[in-house]
Amino acid sequence: MLPAMRPLAAALSLATAPLLGLVAVSCLLVDPPPDVPLPQSRRPTLLRAEAVPPPSAVLTTLPRQFVVPVEVVDRNVSFEWRVFVDYDVLEGAQVAYETGGVSDPESNADAGNLAVRLVAFSVRSDRFSGSFLRCHTIEIVVAERFVGDRDRVYPSGEGDAVSWFYNPAGDLAGCPTFDAGADGGPDADADAEGG
């Protein structure tokens, strides 16, 4: 480079430096930061293996109390629970409804980053005395929310259920089958949308 051109080159580099810096900064300002995904809510989940009495065995006597641990991811959320005896989709929930309630954050027992809450309930023994059926199905359903009053229907993916079978004979031979449907019942989504 010729010595006479050095001042011109220096002047050009000084003049273009701020312009290059502005271009670099504007590239940073034009692109917004990516959205951070929000954690998805997770339905309350019944911890079947820890339920008392265990739902895997046929009950020959009616326990005084059932206790079921329920896991929720967000310790600050509430969930609803409902108990049904011999729920049959043909008869509806009003006949089968036994009891229910709401578990709120104040009933929380911390378990690391998760919350485990205990739901305890009893079933009226008069439902079983003098019954022509010796077999019964006892079911607890937990959900973020239920669609109707005293019903077991919840929006798809928002709930969980576990059942116990009762027969003094100790087996299920000759017992009727009660169909509560899967995932909130066969019409859970239609009912949630008013259908």
So how many helices? 3
Identify the overall geometry: rod-shaped
Mean pLDDT: 76
Q: Structural class from helices and strands? A: alpha+beta
Sheet with the most strands: spatial strand order = 1-2-6-5
- How many beta-strand runs? 8
Q: Please tell me how large the radius of gyration is.
A: 31 Å
Cα(first) to Cα(last) distance is 83 Å
Note the main sheet: 4 strands, antiparallel
Helix content: 10-25%
Low-confidence stretches are 181-195
List the helices and strands in order. Answer: HEEEHEEEEEH
Beta-strand percent range = 25-35%
Commentary on this structure:
It is a single chain. The protein has 195 residues and is α+β, with helices and mostly antiparallel strands. 17% of the residues lie in helices and 26% in strands. It has helices at residues 6-30, 93-96, 188-192; strands at residues 45-46, 66-72, 79-85, 97-103, 109-111, 114-121, 136-143, 159-166. The strands form 2 sheets. Strands 1-2-6-5 form a 4-stranded antiparallel β-sheet, with no helix packed on it. A 4-stranded antiparallel β-sheet has the order 4-3-7-8.
